[in-house]
Write a structure and sequence with these properties.
Two copies of one chain form a homodimer. With about 375 residues, chain A is an alpha+beta fold. Chain A is built from six helices and 28 strands. Helices cover about 20% and strands about 45% of the residues of chain A. Chain A has a nine-stranded antiparallel β-sheet. Chains A, B: Forms a ring-shaped head-to-tail homodimer around DNA. Chains A, B: It is found in: Cytoplasm.
């Protein structure tokens, strides 16, 4: 195996596949990056057995030569050292050559590294995915879906299924749901293509976070292929595999209240900042809890009290307050997470009494919803 | 106590004094910031008993009103909460008022905080410093002196005196020396004023690091007052006190070799980058050690070998190599620290054999020196 490659392009691909590599693996070869050289180009692979990433660098792109292949072949190199080395190479061109006994030379300018490689035959094969149905979404929309839901997954392993995001596909519409049983985030989006049949799977939150970091903020289409125990996201020159979580995701539809008793419309920014300030003193007290009360004249009062440190009180003028008077306490963190995930400048909040979950939505957008359980303080 | 103040100016002063406040103190009142209001302005004080910082905000500056004093007085407020609160206040003006029982109101726009204060009478007094001799240095030069030496202090408490920087003053010249007994950094600077007598004190490295963070990169003069067990740095509106370390600093002058057997002149950048690359593989091996060998034709070879991972070799063309042939091993970290501290584009290195300390200097600047002990590998 021998080839010459543009350093920056190599660095970019190495950084992509490094997202799947962990040093805390019990399978030694997975601490490596697999490099496969064929006449079409160079493929890098990284995997931690939950997530696998393949990044392809074509020989030529847009008429520019990126790789010069001298001999095809493959090798596995220690991922951490390889990635640090390529980042610090002195020149724009890098030559990589496998010699006898898996010894691999990395040459750039007057610097020459000699790394002990591992046999690529021993690297696990990535899942073969049969492509019956392909779902299509623009990359930036997919990133938004992840951003607006994944923060609400559970971080506790007591119910492993809740550490994932529930993805449902029905009637060409994709729904993402995440809940840690104290709050729930839901976002829907229309697919770009028609899809036969329905899907209902759970993708680990960690996988979606890593996927989000790799995808560009463009409207380039991402192809999604869902199988029984794997999902594949395919972008240009990039394959991202994740295992699915086993088990049934709880039916969350009946959690969302259909009626309401108090409805508030308010500017996001002022409301968010007032809660942020109130939470400064709440942090040390009862689990980050702030209190919201409706006052006369369309005013919301946000307050918090932490006997040892002090108290804070702030009034926010709402756009409108309808229905019953309300005093309710909630986790400042959960409400701030939800408000940051919403788009637009105004939101509506529907309450059904101080002990029932409440729902936050953007004023003019029904594709997403944030549900939060209040905290009992009275 | 009651006053109205510009928020940004308050935030800046709070951040300055926070550098001296630690939550890990055994003296509860030192977790607070002391606020003292007099007719001239507002003084904030923070202290961890090693370092004390006083920041003064005048009532008026350059014709602009910064503070409106309504009632003089003083209070101590929890530093962490106070600093987070002022950063997040909604409006440009902040009113602070002490009511009964040390209850302190912080008001900005519609937000109102009520903090439990502590009695300012219980806050320890800062040292009274008799100003016999004042040393003067521009702020940017003082920061450079610290930057070029403080990294070499010892991080181990086995010889506490080596955790400080030795400051000597003689003949209107100030010398800073730091050593951890494996390397030594020295920098001299001429004082702006004439000084009677000599000084020889040791300032904790931590104090100098914090001082450096507070000082601006300007040529504004800093006044330094040294007493038996304290040093005071005074800038405009800022007092920075540090205790001195007790004990005698070792005499380092005899460590610096006066003769040399091999002299190398080389571009800093290329040399530094080659060592950086070689250290990538050294990290896992024998304590970050790289090897330097002189070759024919004015070439330096930098190499490193880590049997389990691989090896690296790189040639750097020197400006000149004079004297005996040399093979020497050293800590890549120590040499990189030293090279980063030097100014200018070219350096000279004087070696006195593979087992003796070597000295790195800027080619055209004799005010500073970096000395490094080699590592025995043969």
């Amino acid at each position: 195996m021998q080839f010459i490659i543009q350093r920056d392009r190599l660095v970019q691909s190495v950084q992509e596949v490094m997202k799947a590599v962990t040093s805390r693996t019990t399978i030694p070869i997975l601490t490596g990056v697999k490099i496969t050289v064929k006449t079409e180009g160079v493929t890098l692979t990284g995997s931690d057995s939950d997530i696998s990433i393949e990044s392809f660098i074509p020989v030529e792109e847009d008429g520019n030569e990126i790789v010069e292949i001298k001999e095809t072949g493959s090798i596995v190199l220690n991922a951490r050292f390889f990635s640090e080395i390529v980042k610090k190479l002195p020149m724009d061109a890098v030559e990589i050559e496998v010699q006898n006994n898996l010894q691999t030379i990395i040459r750039s300018g007057k610097a020459e590294f000699n790394l002990n490689g591992l046999d690529a035959e021993e690297y696990p094969h990535l899942p073969l995915i049969e492509e019956e149905n392909i779902l299509r979404l623009p990359a930036d929309l997919l990133k938004t879906l992840v951003r607006q839901t994944v923060f609400a997954v559970s971080t506790s392993e007591t119910r492993p299924i809740l550490t994932g995001v529930n993805i449902k596909v029905e009637n060409d519409e994709l729904t993402c749901i995440a809940t840690d049983s104290h709050r729930l985030a839901m976002r829907k989006a229309r697919l770009e293509n028609e899809v036969n049949g329905t899907y209902n799977v759970v993708i680990p939150g960690k996988s979606l976070n890593e996927l989000s970091k790799i995808l560009d903020d463009t409207n380039e289409p991402i192809e999604i292929v869902i199988t029984e125990n794997q999902v594949l996201f395919r972008a240009k020159n990039l394959l991202f595999f994740s295992r699915l979580l086993e088990g049934n995701y709880p039916d969350t539809s009946r959690l969302i209240p259909t009626d309401s008793k108090t409805n508030i419309t308010v500017h996001v920014k002022e409301f968010l900042q007032a809660i942020d300030r109130a939470s400064l003193l709440a942090r040390e007290g009862r689990n980050n809890v702030v209190k919201l009360s409706t006052l006369e004249g369309g005013v919301i009062e946000i307050s918090s009290n932490s006997p040892e440190i002090g108290k804070v009180i702030e009034e926010v003028t709402a756009e409108s307050i309808e229905g019953e008077e309300l005093k309710i306490s909630f986790s400042a963190k959960f409400v701030m997470d939800a408000l940051k995930a919403l788009e637009g400048t105004d939101i509506k909040i529907n309450f059904t009494g101080a002990m029932r979950p409440f729902v936050i939505r953007s004023l003019h957008d029904d594709t997403m919803l944030q549900l939060i359980l209040p905290v009992r303080t009275y």
